[in-house]
Structure formats: C-alpha cells, structure tokens
Write a structure and sequence with these properties.
The structure holds 2 protein chains of 2 kinds. By secondary structure, chain A is an alpha/beta fold. Chain A has a domain of 144 residues: P-loop containing nucleotide triphosphate hydrolases (Rossmann fold). Helices cover 42% and strands 24% of the residues of chain A. Chain A contains 10 helices and 10 strands. In chain A, strands 6-7-8-3-9-10 form a 6-stranded mixed β-sheet, sandwiched between helices. In chain A, a hairpin with a 2-residue loop joins strand 4 and strand 5. In chain A, helix 8 crosses helix 9. The longest helix of chain A is centred in the last third of the chain and has 16 residues. Chain A starts with a strand and ends with a helix. By secondary structure, chain B is mostly helical. Chain B has a domain of 181 residues. Helices cover 77% and strands 1% of the residues of chain B. Chain B contains 19 helices and 2 strands. In chain B, helix 2 runs parallel beside helix 6, helix 3 runs parallel beside helix 7 and helix 17 packs antiparallel against helix 18. The longest helix of chain B has 38 residues. The radius of gyration of chain B is 24 Å and the shape is globular. Chain B starts with 5 loop residues before the first helix and ends with a helix. Classes of the chains: A alpha/beta, B mainly alpha. Chains A and B meet through helix 2, helix 3 and helix 4 of A and helix 10 and helix 15 of B. The complex binds adenosine-5'-diphosphate and magnesium ion (MG). Adenosine-5'-diphosphate binds next to strand 2 and helix 1 of chain A.
C-alpha cells in the first residue's frame, strides 16, 4: 500500500507537489496522469527517497519513507523517467552490484535475472557496456534492475518509453502478475490508451495536486465523455487552450 | 574555448557540463601542478648544488623525460575521454575539417602542469646563464609538444576504435596496462641511469644525444643546440600535419573491432554490500583510463625519486619509509575522482538501501586500494635492499586508510545525512594535506626518535588508533 498525506514539495518558490493525497491499495495498479511539469516525477522521487518532501508524509508498505528511508528502499522498485545507469558497467556487472547491495541470494538473483532477460530478450546485451546500449535496451536494464529484489511496491515513471510493442506487452503481463501477487504499483504515462488498459484507478494530477481520481469509467461519467483523451483534456482544463492553438494554426495558414 | 564552439553552445545541457568540466580542468591544472612543482624544486635545488656541468646535464637529461612521458600519457588519455564524451559527434556534421588542431587546443590545458615540473630548473638556469636557460626552456617545450604528437599518434592508432563489448580477461588487461606503464617508466629512468655511465666514456656528442630527450644535453653548445631544435621542429611539424589529417578521417569513420565472442549468459556473483560497492568503483575506474592516471599520481612523483636514490646508491630504510608516507599522504588526491565517478548516478544510489556511512566507507576503501598496492610494492622493493623493510608492511595498509578516512571525515563534515558528492576545491585540498601531514607527522615521531623496533611498533599503535577512531567516527 502507498499512502501520502498532504505531501508538498517546494523547489525554491515553485510548488511542484501541493498537498497531495494518494492511496494505492495492495494489488492495485494506479495510473498517475497529468500534463508535463504537473509533478508526477517529483512525487515519485519523494516516494523513492531521492527527494525529501517539504512537508507531509509518505508511507509505503507500512514504512514511512522519511523516518525509515533504508527500510522503505528495501521494499521499493523504481524505474526512473530516463534510465540512470553506470555507463561503464555491463548489465551483468550492474545486476551483480544490485544483488550485493540488496542482499539477494545468488540463486534467487540468477533465477530472476534469467527470467527477466528471457522475457525481455535481453541476453545478447548482457556483456555490452551500458553506455553503448540503445535507449530501449537501457530502459530494459532499468526495469530489470527495479524488479530483481521482488519489491512489494513498484514505482514506474513512464516505464514504457522506448520499448517496442512486443516488450511493452510483456511488461504489462509482468505488471499484472505483480498485481495479482498483492503488490502496489504506481505508474505514470502519457499514453492514455495504455493507462486505460492497465490501471485499476487513475489519478489526474495538475499543478501538483490530484484534481480527479477514480476508475476510467468513473472519470468518463464525471465529465460525460466517452474518450479517455477528452476526459484528460477536460479534467486538466486544457480544452480551451488546445482550441486556441488550433485556431491560431488555421489563421497562419 | 568551449563558449567559442558554436556547436556545443547550441546544446545547453552539454555546454553546461562542458563548462563545468573546463572549470574543473583549471582546478586540475593547479592541482596537478602542485606536487609536480614540489618535485621540480627538488631537482632545481640539485642543479644549484651541482659541482660540474656533467651533473647539470645529467639532471637535465633525466628531467627531460618527464614532460615527454606525461604529455604522451595525458594526450592519449584526454583525447580518448573527449572522444567518448561525444565532443566530435556534433562537429562531424559541419562541412569543415577540424581534426587534430581542435583536439590539440582542448588538450593544451592538460599539458600545462607539466611545465610546473621543469619550471624551477629553467628559472635557475635563466638566472645563472640566460642563453642556456632559454635553450633549456625551448627544449622542454619541444618535449611537451613531442609527447603530445606521440600521444595523438597513439590515440589515432588505438583510441579510435569502437569497442562496445567487454572483451575477455578485461581485468587482466588493465593490470597488464598498469604494469606496462610502470615498466616503461622504470625503463626510461634506467636508460638515463645507463646513459649517465656512458657519458664519461663517450663524451657529450654521442650519437644518442642528437635526439630528444638526450639532445637537451647540447644546451651548453648554443649553435649546435639551435640546429638540433630546428631539425626537431621541422620533423614534428611534418608528423603533426600528417596525424591531424589522419585523426579526422578516423573520427569520421572509426575502425570497428569485433573481437568479441558472443556470450549470452548471465554470470551471477554476489558479494557483501561493501565489496560490491568497492568492486563496482574499481571496475569503473579501470575502464576509464583517464581515472587510472589520477590514481597513479604518486607513481609519477615517486619513480624519479626512487631512481635517483638508487642511482646515487644511498637508498636507506628511512628513505623507503619516507616514500611510503608520501604514497599514504597522496592517497587523498584520489578523493575527487572516487566521488566524481558517481556523477549523475547519485540519484540511483539514493534509491538503494545504502546508508551514508556505508557509502563513505566504501569510497574511502576504494580510494586506499591503489596506494596500498603501491606501498606494498615499495615494501617488497625495500626488502630487496634491507630485510628490515618488512617492518613497513603494516604502515602500507594503515597510512592510506588513515589518510582516506580523515579525508572523508573532513569532506563530509557539514553535509546533511544524505549520500552526496561534496564540493572539493583547492583550499579544502590544501587544508587536507596539512591535516594529513600533521597526523602523519605524529605517526612518524616514534620512528624518528626511538630505537628501530620500538619506534616502528609505537607508530603502528598510533596509526591504528587514528585509523580506528576515524572509522568509528564515520560509522556513527
Ligand atoms: N530539481 C528541481 N529543481 C527545481 N525545479 C524542479 C526540479 N525538479 C522538478 N522541478 C519542477 O517541478 C515541476 C514538476 O516537475 P515534474 O515532477 O518533473 O513533472 P512531470 O514529471 O509531471 O512532468 C516542474 O515545474 C519542474 O520544472
Ligand atoms: Mg516526469
């Protein structure tokens, strides 16, 4: 379970996350949707302990991330927005490094790396320097790295970016298995149909606060729209802006 | 330099990182210059004390090797590093041939510290005999340029290959590289050693002495020296012209090596937290040749001194002890590199269950390892002369660790509880050198004052207490 209460993050004078209240149940995939700069990544970085909140609390699997960061970090698997990896290591080195730091027994580590490498067709890159991998393959290293310790909380910031359709499909299946096993997954994306397909509940975030929350159906009913894209535009009050831009474009033609 | 490059300036992020790099280069210039200057003064004082022209020439001959070797090394390393940064990728699109000149411009900054090495001697000679001094200066300058050209040649032949797969026996290759470097350095100095013996029998104008670095011994014969300088310059210009063209061709179309045997298997190996951290750092350091250079700094400072001591035949136990203290103190010069390798990966480390003290102690251990190995080599070398040098073995472990633990305490003193990279500036480094100097002075007192065995054992005691209390301080 992930619970945040009044989570707030200031960057100087800018309030990136503003009194954010979230609750992701066990066995739930929660989609965090919102325009660029709305605070999705910042929220996730607070949950993972990269950033400290200015105020408010964040609890993952009954552990307060600020009060007991190490305990919390053991429970979390995190896929950042863009892969942060050691470029001069190979994926093999990287996985062993994680195995050591996360205290994963050798047998389990081997089984899991093999399982995911197989699923993501990753074997050919096992001994290539990460710096020379393509973006998609770096993303795979990042995803495998997040899953190796079998976390009870998964935080994925646009994790589907750069993956080809087949791999994206496989990742979706893996996420479903995590969910069935009672884990909490929080997931941000700009691909709305994907969110519709994957997420049990969706939270729309704008200017650092949740402006609407619910299942896709609930959200659609709320604004009386049938298409998820229209729901998104309506809830983030982007409708008029899109219309204005379209008008302007027409006039310049 | 960086700002003037429009292609880099277009890319804000890269510009920022490049600018950061150049400011750190500037810092490095001063940084690397300091120890070199110290040794330069040491040689210069020998020149002042020299009773005869032969001794001065012998010293100049030895000295002339150093800027040459350093500049070969730095050029090759720096060019490889810049290429790996992708600095040329943007330039490839431009309809001009930039090639070697551009590279030389960027690297020039790294070669400046080499002057610090020879500067004191040049100043002394300029005061004593202006013409000889000027010629010496020109020869050293030529030596640096020669090294640069050789470095560029090495880069073009070996550096401009694309190797994306980790080869087999990678670690072995690094070891071989390091050993080769040590052997080459030692060989050069041994050559001087041999040369010193040759001089008295063959006079100055031996065939050997028309080529740099021996050619520097012609400085007392100005006309001949100028003639040799001109010959060298013409030769260098021709080679430089050829190489700078070659470089651009190779940058545009690198040779792709594929000596890989495809290995699709995963090889697990799990270690403790601490050894995982240290091993990861060592792997990263060993794969960035530029980093190895930073850690071998004590070597550049020590090898000439050791060779000199052996040459003079007065290598004493006290001297070996002194060398081990120097290596121990210089351990702290690796702190910048060992922390900087985290770079943008800091955020990644922060998501792992790793506490600040584990991180810092891991870094301190990584930092100490290379100096420890160097110290052990020194001890073994010392045992060859005096069996009692074995007394130094505990110090080979204690001193680098003490130095790095105190460095970390000092650097992380004001920081909050999070894993981070402290800002390391010159001032902090100087303060650190003083702190470590004082501590080492304390450790050295019993060795200097007491009877050999009691002295050494008391020193182990003091060093152990210092090291352990520093460790506990970091741990708590
Ligand atoms: N380290 C930082 N320093 C200052 N401002 C930041 C920092 N990180 C994010 N921001 C700002 O916080 C806001 C939210 O950013 P972010 O969480 O990355 O948005 P999202 O992921 O939803 O696109 C943005 O306005 C961004 O510019
Ligand atoms: Mg984001």
């Amino acid at each position: 379970m992930i619970v945040t209460k009044g989570l707030t993050k200031w960057f100087g004078g800018l309030c990136a996350v503003n009194d954010l209240n979230l609750r992701v149940q066990d066995g739930e995939i929660y989609g965090l949707l919102g325009p660029n700069g709305s605070g999705k990544s910042t929220t996730m970085k607070i949950l993972t302990g990269i950033l400290k909140p200015s105020s408010g609390t964040a609890i993952v699997d009954k552990v307060d991330v600020v009060a007991s960061p190490i305990k919390a970090k053991k429970k979390i698997g995190y896929v950042p927005e863009s892969p942060i990896l050691y470029e001069s290591l190979t994926p093999n080195d990287m996985f062993n490094f994680l195995g050591g730091l996360r205290n994963i027994p050798s047998e389990k580590l081997k089984r899991r790396v093999n399982y995911y490498s197989n699923a993501f067709e990753f074997y050919p890159y096992m001994h290539q320097y990460i710096g020379s991998l393509s973006f998609g393959n770096k993303q795979k290293v990042s995803i495998i790295s997040a899953l190796l310790h079998d976390p009870s909380i998964l935080i994925m910031d646009e994790a589907m970016n750069g993956l080809d359709p087949k791999i994206a499909r496989i990742l979706r299946e893996i996420l479903f298995r995590f969910k069935v096993n009672g884990k909490s997954i929080i997931f941000s994306t700009h691909v709305l149909p994907l969110a519709e397909m994957v997420c049990d509940r969706i939270g729309i975030i704008d200017n650092g606060t949740i402006v609407a929350e619910g299942t896709v159906e609930e959200l659609k009913d709320k604004v009386h729209e049938a298409d998820i894209e229209d729901v998104f535009l309506e809830l983030t009050k982007s409708r008029d802006r899109v219309a204005n831009v379209l008008d302007a474009l027409k006039q310049t033609e | 330099m960086v700002k003037a490059n429009p292609m880099i300036a277009n890319d804000r992020e890269r510009l920022e990182s490049e600018l950061k790099r150049s400011s750190s280069i500037l810092r490095n210039v001063v940084f690397q210059s300091l120890p070199l200057l110290t040794f330069g003064i040491f040689i210069a004082s020998a020149i002042i004390l020299a009773e005869s022209r032969e001794v001065v020439l012998g010293l100049l001959g030895s000295l002339a090797f150093i800027p040459l070797i350093l500049s070969i090394y730095q050029t090759a390393v720096q060019a490889t590093y810049l290429n790996s940064l992708g600095v040329f990728d943007n330039l490839k699109m431009m309809p001009t041939r930039l090639g070697g000149h551009y590279l030389s411009g960027v690297i020039a900054l790294d070669l400046i510290p080499n002057f610090a090495f020879v500067l004191p001697s040049v100043v002394i000679l300029l005061i004593q005999k202006p013409l000889v001094g000027t010629l010496t200066l020109l020869w050293f300058l030529l030596g640096i340029i020669l090294g640069h050209v050789i470095g560029l040649a090495i880069f073009t032949t070996f550096g401009l290959k694309i190797q994306s797969y980790k080869g087999r026996y990678n670690f072995l290759k690094v070891i071989v590289k390091v050993i080769a470097l040590i052997v080459v350095l030692t060989l050069f100095f041994s050559l001087i050693y041999a040369y010193e013996y040759i001089i008295p029998y063959m006079g100055f104008m031996t065939e050997l002495s028309v080529i740099y670095p021996m050619a520097i011994t012609s400085v007392f014969d100005p006309f001949f020296s100028i003639f040799l300088l001109i010959l060298h310059s013409i030769f260098l210009l021709l080679i430089y012209y050829y190489i700078s063209h070659k470089i651009w061709e190779r940058i545009l179309e690198p040779i792709i090596t594929s000596d890989r045997r495809i290995q699709n298997e995963y090889f697990p190996s799990t270690r403790s937290k601490m050894s995982s951290l240290v091993l990861k750092d060592l792997k990263m350091i060993s794969r960035q040749t530029a980093m190895i250079a930073g850690f071998l700094l004590p070597l550049f400072v020590l090898i000439p001194q050791i060779v000199l001591a052996v040459q003079e035949g007065d290598l004493s136990l006290t001297q070996i002890t002194f060398f081990i203290f120097i290596v121990g103190a210089l351990t702290l010069s690796g702190s910048d590199a060992v922390l900087k390798i985290e770079g943008k990966n800091l955020d990644f480390l922060r998501t792992l269950p790793l506490t600040k003290d584990q991180y810092i102690i891991g870094k301190a251990v990584t930092m100490s390892l290379i100096p420890m190995i160097l110290s052990i080599i020194l001890v073994v070398f010392g045992i060859y002369y005096y069996i009692s040098a074995i007394l130094l073995l505990p110090l080979a472990f204690l001193l680098p660790l003490t130095s790095s633990f105190f460095t970390m305490i000092y650097l992380f003193r004001y920081e909050e509880e999070d894993i981070g990279i402290p800002d390391i500036n010159i001032l902090k480094m100087i303060v650190l050198f003083i702190i470590v100097g004082l501590l080492f002075g304390l450790i050295a007192v019993p060795i200097l004052l007491l009877n050999t065995y009691i002295g050494y054992f008391t020193s182990y005691g003091i060093a152990s207490i210092l090291m352990i209390s520093a460790y506990l301080h970091l741990k708590l």
